[in-house]
């Protein structure tokens, strides 16, 4: 696969500043880093973003995530590896990523389940992180950004 556009052309100083602010806001609300990484990986899998799947899995592994959990993210409902809070976050990520698949993009039961596990501030950060992940996925898929062949 060859990129349609050099991704560096998209990252102007004001864009980088805005992205850093989104990242900081999402990661400063007290959500476990592992939950944010799982959500990022799942949304990226759904969107077919090779760059984010690759980088997300590597970052999660570097931060202590187990192979069992990483290998099972796409089938999280059918595996015993995830906590109830992580399952709620993954369900929210899937619904928010697949908004057009249902008339009610994020049904109340999915939202309410997440709200049982996270504070309002954490929920806001989780929604922001899901949106940020989808933002990057759409840029990378649209411009055909390949995952690096060698991370060195």
Morphology call: globular
Please identify which CATH superfamily we are dealing with.
AhpD-like
The average pLDDT is 92
How much β-strand is present in the residues?
A: under 5%
Class based on secondary structure composition and strand pairing: mainly alpha
Task: Label this structure with key terms.
152 residues; mainly alpha; AhpD-like; 63% helix; globular
Kindly summarize this structure in a few lines.
The protein has helices at 13-27, 33-47, 50-62, 67-72, 84-97, 108-117, 120-142. It is mostly helical and 152 residues long. Residues 13-95 form the Carboxymuconolactone decarboxylase-like domain.
Can you tell me about this structure?
By secondary structure, the protein is mainly alpha-helical. It has a single domain (31-142), classed as AhpD-like (Up-down Bundle). The protein has helices spanning 13-27, 33-47, 50-62, 67-72, 84-97, 108-117, 120-142. Helix 1 packs antiparallel against helix 7, helix 5 (84-97) runs antiparallel to helix 6 and helix 5 (84-97) crosses helix 7. The longest helix has 23 residues, at 120-142. The radius of gyration is 15 Å and the shape is globular. It starts with 12 loop residues before the first helix and ends in a 10-residue tail after the last helix. Residues 13-95 form the Carboxymuconolactone decarboxylase-like domain. This is Alkyl hydroperoxide reductase AhpD. It comes from Plantactinospora endophytica. InterPro entries: AhpD-like, AhpD_core, CMD-like. Pfam families: CMD.
